[in-house]
Design brief:
By secondary structure, the protein is an alpha+beta fold. The longest helix has 20 residues. Strands 1-3-2 form a 3-stranded antiparallel β-sheet. The chain has 5 helices and 3 strands; from the N terminus they run H-E-H-H-H-H-E-E.
Length: 211
């Protein structure tokens, strides 16, 4: 029984699936981003994050060799030492090229892991691309998260504090009472229900409106 074991099988045997994920992670390390199906990207990012964790642990003194061997064993990438001369290219040149571009253990421990020193998890991101024409498989891009990809905080305009006076020249808001001592504008009619000014005759209720 495999209770509480959640692992994407991807329709493959254990050996085939392990080799597939290792190749995906190695390509991610060498090329920094890969394009694959969404199911494979989600399964490969789990392995990639664990490899970065091992690479970060290998930064401490005295533990570098140990963790590099663990990474090489998990990714099934044995180090190469012998490079015979081929097509007039010396073994030294081939070794230098392989170390700079193909040695995934060195690239992970020296180039990628130090960049995540201040980041706890979440070293990769999956970007959905839609469905592939043909078999309609969901495609995605798996790439490393750089340190400058932190979400920016939106600048919300500061709200005016209560009691602040409006700026000079601003009209008062609708419903605001006029300031004390302000006279109504010339020609303005009194609002409905307002008391008549002093000296004006009051309208009697007995007067009928003309027909």
């Amino acid at each position: 029984m495999r209770h509480r074991i959640r692992k994407a099988k991807l329709g493959r045997t254990t050996e085939h699936r392990t080799r597939l994920l290792n190749n995906l992670v190695c390509s991610l390390i060498k090329h920094r981003r890969i394009k694959t199906t969404l199911a494979k990207a989600k399964a490969a990012r789990v392995v990639a994050d664990k490899m970065v964790t091992l690479g970060k642990k290998g930064q401490s003194e005295g533990a570098e060799v140990q963790y590099r061997r663990l990474i090489a064993a998990r990714l099934q990438q044995n180090p190469r030492r012998h490079f015979p001369k081929k097509n007039a290219v010396s073994g030294k040149v081939q070794r230098t090229y392989w170390r700079e571009n193909e040695d995934v253990v060195r690239i992970l421990c020296e180039d990628i892991a130090p960049g995540f020193e201040n980041r706890n998890g979440g070293y990769t991101r999956v970007i959905k691309l839609g469905r592939r024409s043909g078999d309609a498989a969901e495609m995605a891009i798996l790439e490393w998260v750089s340190e400058g990809d932190k979400p920016e905080v939106e600048d919300n305009p500061s709200k005016e504090k209560k009691g602040d006076a409006p700026a000079e020249g601003d009209a008062p808001a609708e419903g605001d009472a006029p300031a004390e001592g302000d006279a109504p504008a010339e020609g303005d009619a009194p609002a409905e229900g307002d008391a008549p000014a002093e000296g004006e005759p009051k309208a009697s209720g007995d007067e009928k409106k003309p027909e």
